[in-house]
Amino acid sequence: MAKIVKFIYVMIILIFLFLVSTNIDAIRNKCFRPSDCPPSMYCDAGFQIGCVRKICTCLRILAPIDFVPT
User: Fold this and answer.
1) Residues with Cβ within 8 Å of residue 51, at least 6 apart in sequence
2) Where are the domains of the chain?
3) Which helix (H) or strand (E) element contains residue 57?
4) Rounded to an integer, what distance in angstroms lies between the CA atom of residue 56 and that of residue 32?
5) Largest interatomic CA distance in the chain
6) CA 51/CA 36 separation, integer angstroms
7) pLDDT digits (tens, 9 = 90+) for 12-70
8) What residues does the Late nodulin domain cover (predicted)?
9) What pTM value is reported for the model?
10) 24 contacts: CB under 8 Å, gap ≥ 6
C-alpha cells in the first residue's frame, strides 16, 4: 500500500515538473524592437510598448526633466 502511494506522489511530481519546464516562455513575447511586439498587446494610459531585455513590456512615459535653473 505504501509503495503505491509513494509511486503516485512521484508521478505527480514528475508530471508537474514536466509541465512547468515546457511552458516557461509561453507567455512572454520576444522582440528586438518595439515594432516586433504584437499589435494586440495593450498598455494602460501613461505607458507605451517597449522592448526590454528582448521581451515586450509596457514602459512608463516620464515627463522630460528641465535642467535649466529658474
Assistant:
1) 31, 32, 33, 34, 36, 37, 57
2) 28-62
3) strand 55-60
4) 9
5) 82
6) 9
7) 998 887 776 655 555 667 888 888 888 888 889 889 999 998 888 899 988 777 777 66
8) 1-57
9) 0.49
10) none
